[in-house]
Design brief:
It is built from 24 helices and 30 strands. The protein has 1000 residues and is of the alpha+beta class. It comes from Sarcoptes scabiei.
């Protein structure tokens, strides 16, 4: 039977550990109905009495791997490949379902007597089997009753004899167990229905589904919360799942009204967090509770084991008090007598204490004005897109109260806008070099090496323009960079899966402060890969080789070109009398700017470097000697001329004995000296480029691209984080106090294989930002706060970047302008299966060294702060963090917990990331949110362990982070392998059914 039912399709693509048997099969005479048809290649999965089959196209078999769980691996030892089924290739499958209700298995074997003694079911003879395949086949006969009893026979061919025997055993045994439980369930149900506790009009027990109870919120004025104590019924399973169904009726009705069912809980004393809504209570009400043992969660199959009845008199609708009740749970034995097997407790509370449905949140505006934050549904602003909102209510058994976790997640259009702006500055810088080579040098020095260099930079310029255009076009149809798009070259400048995550706790109609964090994929260059990293490793470690020397000269030449352009503009402003020279203050100010730019060029290159690169050595073939061709002066003499020019200018300015004509000789000498320095650096750059082989030029191009993509990607994320916090007074005040912007990255990458290279890429990018990026805040007095904050790029060179944020402000006590530095710190704790391979047998690994280094910087930052250094709570948290880092313990997620705590105390920004900020990041963020809820409410995680795990499972299954997964891969499944997930820390494991093997 071919089916397209989505729940059953989802069951077929569920985790392998949910199935009793799975594997490759060839099936003949099924579906197609032809007795002469060729066997169809299928993949079968057995779950209880359901046999699910996927027919796969022949041409897709080579592309699709199939997986069998290690415990159920039925291939012969000589098989080379495991089986894996991938949900993202669902379009290649045609899925069928066989329901094994009434069937026989016919074992086709030359020596059938060997099998008769081992089977508890009928083995029939088969005469029309192909002798060549007898020992690998079995027939499945389904008996169907459609007017008259008919049969359908399906022949299955397995890959081995052992595989065939296991298929037969599993089909028979698992189906038998399923029907045994089903029979037990029906038997218990029939005995319960015969039990009549009352002799009044309510004896006629019928059931109706009242959808208006659940949908009509106006009639829902009470909520019921349920728990059970010490269930003593004998159940084979050591740890069983239980749920409770609730029914209600009053004296005026003869029909039971179904209220709802709790979630399944694995405990002998279950505490159910799901609160059930009740209709209006106007009369005496009778409640019936049915306790079920869940034996098949995916198929929603459970059997009744106990019941309870309770009558409640006149509970008023306007009663705001919590009413608590208790009664016994009874079961029936085979003789029909009742036995007490536990206690059932429940409470009724006013619906006014509970929130409205997910789509609405009704709170007075004055409440939010007093608390100074927006409604959750209004969190989107000029920077972020429309958010995804989720809310979940949980029951606290101690005081019979409830709390709600509100989640909010949104992406931002800035992940495309900011890279476009930064690429525009890269274009200007590249254009400046091309113009310098083409206009200034090619006309006076024509050689093959210069043409090659010009060709190289023209290609870089065209590529940069192409990246910018493609990003702009991509942003029209996408709101963020999905984890599926790691490889495209133009997207290497865009952060992966950047989102903002908010969490707020509601308790008794009061709201907590907001927990805000961000998530982003590791800053790395996926396009170039991580296989051949020797050149990049040499680059980051500054090993002297041709490519690295060429890069160093390129950085210096770029700096001189930018500074020369700035100085020329300032000198031209004076020469053309655009500024009033007679105004002494303006003249002095402009010369101070010129002097500052000139000082940056002094000693930019040493005399030894120029002599070694410009000498016409035997391994460098250039048509003529550069020193003679360019008439270059010694570099130390150039520096002296530059200093002498300014000594002359400063003397004239200080005495105020100057005119436009008296300053012109100094201007000419200064221009000549700077141009001479530019020619010298150009000669050094050309010489180093000419020394490189074709292979080294390719490596140099990759180094340049990797550097630029990492810088733009990481800087984009930092700019977005800062922009989002500009309206936060605590953030601004902390920056003003410390002159540093603290950003803490909680990283979940392992330190082996390719993830170690990703981590090194990320460290390189953040170290670069810390060293070369300067942040300026300009506070603009504005009476109208509707004006948006914005930013601009004041300088963008390989050795210096300055970004200015312009902030409208009513506050008068703030300075007009402050300059500060970035302080990005990385704390890494690998949690996946690869992190298990990281050991310290051969000395400290990257993770331990990194965490200790980041802690030292964090400790120094706090000690330097007058506000934080004397805070006892911060000092104690730092001490705990230091102790955890010194333990050098694998997968120690306690480090991340303490890092988050310290960051919150010092008003820092937290960014959680892994490879793609999707799976590991999601389980980490949801763990932070539940911890935040428990901390806010003063709950103990150990005492309320069940509530803690229930909240984790709810958020991970249906929360905003699952929506993040869906946005990235199109499925609501985390990309985790079941066996690998067992190596994760227990608190980082998502619930069963929320993950599967996906390649993302």
């Amino acid at each position: 039977m071919h089916f397209e039912d989505e729940p059953l399709q989802n069951l077929f693509f569920a985790d392998s550990n949910l199935f009793e048997k799975e594997g490759r099969l060839k099936i003949e005479d099924i579906i197609v109905g032809s007795t002469k048809s060729k066997p169809i290649d299928c993949f079968g999965r057995l779950r209880a009495n359901l046999l699910l089959l996927a027919e796969i196209e022949t041409n897709s078999l080579t592309k699709t791997n199939f997986h069998q769980d290690d415990n159920n691996n039925n291939k012969d030892d000589e098989d080379e490949e495991g089986d894996e089924i991938n949900g993202k290739e669902m379009s290649n499958f045609k899925i069928y379902l066989l329901i094994l209700n009434n069937f026989e298995i016919k074992n086709i074997d030359d020596d059938q007597n060997n099998h008769r003694n081992n089977r508890c079911y009928k083995i029939a003879e088969n005469d029309d089997a192909d002798d060549d395949r007898n020992d690998l086949c079995f027939d499945l006969v389904l008996k169907q009753k459609i007017r008259a009893e008919t049969q359908r026979k399906f022949r299955f061919e397995c890959e081995s004899k052992k595989d065939r025997d296991e298929w037969i055993d599993r089909i028979a045994s698992k189906s038998f167990c399923f029907f045994k439980n089903q029979k037990k369930s029906l038997s218990n149900d029939s005995r319960i229905l015969k039990y009549k506790p009352f002799t009044n009009d309510c004896q006629q027990e019928t059931l109706v589904e009242c959808s208006d109870i659940l949908n009509d919120r106006d009639r829902c004025v009470k909520y019921i919360s349920i728990c059970c104590d010490d269930i003593t019924i004998s159940i084979n399973e050591p740890s069983s799942l239980f749920l409770v169904k609730v029914f209600q009726r009053n004296n005026l009705l003869k029909q039971w009204q179904y209220v709802g069912a709790t979630e399944p809980v694995r405990s002998r004393s279950p505490r159910f967090s799901q609160c059930l809504p009740l209709k209006t209570i106007d009369h005496c009400d009778l409640f019936k509770f049915e306790l079920f043992n869940v034996i098949e969660q995916h198929l929603k199959f459970a059997y009744l084991i106990a019941f309870a009845y309770l009558e409640i008199d006149h509970l008023q609708n306007d009663d705001n008090q919590i009413k608590r009740f208790q009664t016994g749970l009874c079961s029936l034995d085979s003789s029909g007598s009742t036995n007490l097997i536990g206690k059932l407790k429940f409470s009724l509370s006013s619906a006014k204490k509970f929130i409205e449905p997910m789509s609405s949140l009704s709170v007075s505006s004055s409440f939010y004005e007093k608390k100074s934050f927006k409604l959750f549904e209004q969190e989107s602003n000029e920077f972020f897109n429309e958010p995804i909102n989720r809310k979940f209510t949980f029951f606290i058994d101690d005081n019979h109260s409830n709390f709600t976790i509100h989640e909010n997640m949104c992406d931002t259009k800035l992940v495309f806008d900011v890279p476009i702006i930064l690429l525009d500055h890269l274009l200007k810088s590249e254009s400046l070099i091309v113009r310098l080579l083409q206009n200034d040098f090619l006309t006076i020095f024509d050689c093959e090496q210069l043409k090659n260099l010009l060709y190289f930079h023209n290609n870089c310029l065209k590529s940069c323009e192409e990246y910018q255009t493609k990003i702009r076009n991509w942003s029209v149809y996408n709101s963020f960079r999905s984890s599926k798009f790691k490889e495209p070259k133009f997207l290497q400048f865009v952060p992966i899966n950047l989102h903002k995550q908010n969490c707020r706790i509601e308790y008794e109609q009061n709201y907590s402060s907001q927990m805000t964090c961000y998530s982003v994929g590791a800053f790395t260059c996926h396009h170039l890969g991580f296989d051949q990293m020797d050149d990049w490793r040499s680059f980051t470690e500054k090993v002297p080789n041709n490519a690295n020397i060429t890069w160093a000269m390129f950085v210096k030449l770029t700096k001189v070109a930018h500074q020369t352009e700035n100085i020329s503009k300032l000198l031209s402003a004076i020469d053309e009398q655009r500024l009033i020279v007679g105004n002494h203050a303006d003249t002095k100010s402009i010369y101070e700017k010129i002097h500052s730019n000139v000082n940056d060029l002094i000693d930019i290159v040493t005399k030894e470097e120029t002599e070694s690169l410009l000498s016409n050595s035997s391994d460098l073939v250039i048509e003529s000697n550069l020193l003679e061709e360019f008439l270059l002066e010694p570099v130390d003499l150039i520096y002296l001329n530059m200093k002498a020019c300014f000594v002359d200018i400063e003397v004239k300015i200080s005495r105020e004995e100057y005119s436009f004509e008296t300053l012109q000789p100094s201007h000419r000498k200064l221009r000549n000296a700077i141009n001479s320095l530019c020619r010298t650096l150009f000669g050094c750059y050309l010489s180093s480029f000419a020394r490189m082989s074709a292979k080294e030029i390719v490596a140099y191009e990759k180094l340049k691209f990797r550097h630029e993509s990492l810088v733009v990607q990481s800087l984009t994320a930092i700019i977005i984080f800062i922009l989002d916090n500009l309206n936060d007074d605590s953030f601004i005040n902390t920056v003003i106090e410390n002159r540093k912007i603290l950003t803490i990255f909680k990283v979940l990458l392992s330190c082996v294989f390719e993830e170690a290279q990703m981590l090194k890429d990320m460290l390189y990018a953040l170290d670069y930002l810390e060293e070369f990026v300067s942040i300026v805040f300009s506070f603009k007095a504005n009476n109208c706060l509707s004006e948006q904050s914005t930013f601009k790029i004041n300088a963008f060179r390989n050795d210096f970047i300055e970004i200015e944020f312009i902030i409208p402000s009513k506050t008068l006590d703030r300075p007009n302008r402050i300059e500060c530095e970035l302080l990005p710190l990385v704390f890494d704790v690998g949690i996946n299966q690869q992190a298990s391979l990281t050991t310290n047998l051969f000395g400290p690994n990257l993770q331990d060294v990194l965490n200790k280094k980041s802690f030292e910087k964090l400790n120094y930052y706090i000690n330097q702060s007058l506000v934080f250094s004397n805070d006892e709570i911060i000092r104690n948290s730092l001490k705990d963090l230091d102790e955890e880092i010194k333990k050098v313990k694998a997968k120690n997620i306690r480090i991340l917990e303490l890092v988050g705590k310290v960051t919150k105390l010092i008003n820092g920004t937290t960014i959680t990331c892994c490879k793609s900020a999707k799976d590991r990041t999601s389980v980490s963020i949801t763990l932070d949110e539940v911890r935040f809820a428990f901390e806010t409410l003063g709950l103990n995680q150990e005492i309320h362990s069940h509530l803690f795990q229930t909240a984790l499972d709810k958020l991970r299954t249906n929360g905003t982070r699952m929506e993040n997964v869906f946005k990235n891969v199109g499925q609501r499944k985390y990309a985790f392998n079941y066996l690998f997930l067992l190596t994760f820390p227990a608190e980082m494991r998502p619930p069963s059914g929320s993950f599967c093997d996906l390649e993302t």
